[in-house]
Amino acid sequence: MLKNRILVTSLVVVIVLLIGGGIFLAVKTPMLGSLFATETEESSSQVITSITQTEEVSLLSLGIQGIDSKKANSKVPFLGLDILGSERATFLQYEFTAKLGFDGAETKIENVDEDAYRISIPEFIFIGHSDVKFELIADNSGGLSVFTPEIKQIDMVNKVLDSKQQAKYIEDNEQTLREQAIAFYTGIIHAIDPKVTLDFVFAGDPAGVDNG
Fold first, then answer.
1. How does residue 6 score in pLDDT terms, banded at 50, 70 and 90?
2. What DSSP assignment string belongs to 68-93?
3. Is 56 helix (H, G, I), strand (E, B) or coil?
4. 163-172 vs 174-192: helix axis angle to the nearest 10?
């Protein structure tokens, strides 16, 4: 019985000391905080919600570099005159890799004769871009530029990568894309049977055009 009382008493003392120590630390924390280094830890999580298989065939990889500029200034209301010193000018340097090709799932291969095939290539598309880098190289503002809205760099970036510009990349490289498409399928089919004759038809071509 005496041993039990001693044990209980000891536990009470320990608990009191722990509580007292906790209160002491809680009170003294602001004062002691400056004596210790602070360690923080951050984490993030990402979940892939869907995976879509594609059959896009990349024919060309273009390394594109350039400088895009945009200027703006304010005008006197009702008179249409420029306000001297209100001009803004932003110059943005960019570079990225563009991939051009077509959707292989839409390609049609028809047997038109015993040893002859017609291959119909769909429209060329802008598959995507990578290694994108944009850098502000100059941002000039006049003394009264406060009257002119700031030029948004994000709008300049979007212009370089928008659908209109993508279509231009395809148009400028149309002939090379055709040559690459012909070489792509010719290499595959002739590896199986080099005697086969191939006739290529591209989307948008007038009927009867021979690209073989």
1. very low
2. EEEEE--B-TTT--B-TT--EEEEEE
3. strand
4. 60
Report the distance separating Cα 70 and Cα 92, nearest Å: 9
The rounded distance, in Å, linking the Cα atoms of 150 and 72 is 9
Distance from chain centroid for Cα 39? 33
Which residues does 110 contact at the CB level (< 8 Å), separation at least 6? 117, 118, 119, 120
Considering only residues 3 and 128, tell me which one the structure prediction assigns the higher pLDDT: 128
**Dihedral class, residue 159 (left if φ above 0, else alpha if ψ from -120 to 50, else beta):** alpha
Task: Tell me the β-bridge partners of 58.
Answer: 101
- Please count the CA atoms within 13 angstroms of the CA of 19 that sit on its side-chain side: 6
Element (H, E) at 125: strand 125-141
How do 125-141 and 116-121 pair as beta strands?
A: unpaired
Q: How far is CA 128 from the centre of its chain?
A: 8
DSSP 151: P
Q: What is the pLDDT of residues 170-205, one digit of tens each?
A: 999 999 999 999 999 999 999 999 999 999 999 988
CA distance 194 to 206: 28
pTM reported for the whole predicted model: 0.64
Where b means 16+ CB within 10 Å and e means fewer, 143-168 reads: eebeebeebeeeebeeebeeeeebee
pLDDT of residue 69: 86
